[in-house]
Amino acid sequence: MIESALVDWSRAQFALTAAYHWIFVPLTLGLAVIMAVMETIYVVKKDEFWKNTAKFWMKIFAINFAVGIATGIILEFEFGTNWSNYSWFVGDIFGAPLAIEGIFAFFMEATFFAVMFFGWEKINKKVHLASTWFVALGSAISAMWILIANAWMQHPIGMEFNPDTVRHEMVDFWALVLNPVAVSKFFHSVFSGWMTGAIFAIGISCWYLLKKRETRFALASIRVAAIVGIIGTFAVMFSGDSSGVHLAKYQPMKLAAAEGLENGGTRAPFSIVPGIEIPGMLSILATHDINGYVPGINNLLDGYTTPEGVKHPSAEEKMLRGKTAIDAFTKYRELKDSNPEAAAKAREVLDENVDYFGYGYIDSREELVPNVALIYWSFRVMVGFGTFLLLLMMVVLWAEYKKKLSNMKWLQWVSLLSIPLVYLAGQAGWIVAEAGRQPWTIEGLLPVKAAVSSVSVGAVQTTFFLFVAIFTLFLVIEMRIMIKAIKQGPKIEEQKGE
To answer: Using CA atoms in the order 452, 454, 456, 457, what is the torsion angle rounded to 10 degrees?
Structure first.
């Protein structure tokens, strides 16, 4: 019997590592595009100002990139140390995109990074520009393969359970790659990185304006960053819409928790905050139809029938079929050598109920409901801060275009102090995505408590606090180096005009 403490500490350790990793990843994704755009302007205009501007943000990118690698490597190792049952059960599928990410995407990203960072005066400027864009592309491709792996955990497809090996084995690689959840998750995550990089660059540039330093550099950086950030945020909104549709289709319990929706139905309302609702809006967002049916938490637990007549079983029915699948699997394993005929019958029963296999490990219907309050408010933090930051970037860009930003100290301060908000929005988004699918490691297939390694609670606790210390040290070191670089500034001579 797996200790609940082991599950909790294993989850906490993975959440810690993922949260720290996501501090660095979005800034890498965003700054990569911003500095590539700046270098493109340099190559087109042949203006050394833009070269120096790009080089400054490249320095900040490099500092962040280096620290992000360390947390990412540890994150992948944890699949083997703390989640060995998971790795065994689905490693054939899950390992493929991670291997491709390491062999192809990260290799490309790291190679062109070296050319980009050290090749300024050594190679043709157009070749250098290409290397910068390849770094940005490599960062996005690297994220893509990781998000494909994550999306498969949210919506597992392209595999088949093999009772002889006790593993899920890949049968359709392209189903894995083209998973609709992966597509929307990729665009949502990558473009949120554009938003993060933009808010960071705008905030730091406003610090220079407050200090009355490098004003031309600051205003130029704000212009580029704001445009990249606004484009990225609208793309986040678009991909968020498709994510909502996928949630309704593949993870309805997560959607119900995010909305605090106890009892669903047609014309389901969207909750802004408790007590304030927009009638029918959730149906529109989830189904693109105001009359669309959206099940609530109680509907999903009790079972329901859609207006089209499609019946969905109750939690108890799923649990019963899951236990039937496990029993059939056990009989098949016991009889396959001694009684092939009986084993074949057991295999038929297993195949009929295999989709509910994971529910056989669930002890009560309450386990199937995630932390509703956490998911509900995390979603509103994500959307609320995201909306505010979009408006902020639009106001900042307008003020810069009207040449008023240099005199608007209040807006400069708001921009600078808003840097933490973009990180809070990103972390809140991942809380919705990951905590929202509990109790599942793989949606409907493998619960968390069946995925952990057989290790001692003390070992996980020790490494948890060790990682807290190491990651915090990494973050402090990175911030000190980054602050020092920012204080030094780009060292660009002030010029009038452009």
So the answer is: 20
* Integer CA distances (angstroms), 39 to 47, 303, 449, 482, in order: 10, 57, 49, 21
pTM: 0.92
Strand partners, 137: none
Count how many domains the chain has.
2
What is the token pair recorded at 146? 């990781």
* CA nearest neighbour of 94 among 423, 338, 397, 441: 441
User: 160-171: per-residue pLDDT in tens?
Assistant: 999 988 888 999
Are the C-beta atoms of 21 and 58 separated by less than 8 Å? Answer: no
Report the C-alpha gap between 102 and 107 in whole angstroms: 7
| Structure-block tokens of residue 389 | 């930051």
Please check whether residues 8 and 138 belong to one and the same domain: yes
Q: pLDDT tens digits for 446-497?
A: 999 999 998 899 999 999 999 999 999 989 999 999 999 999 999 765 444 4
Which of 359, 382, 417 terminates a domain? The answer is 359
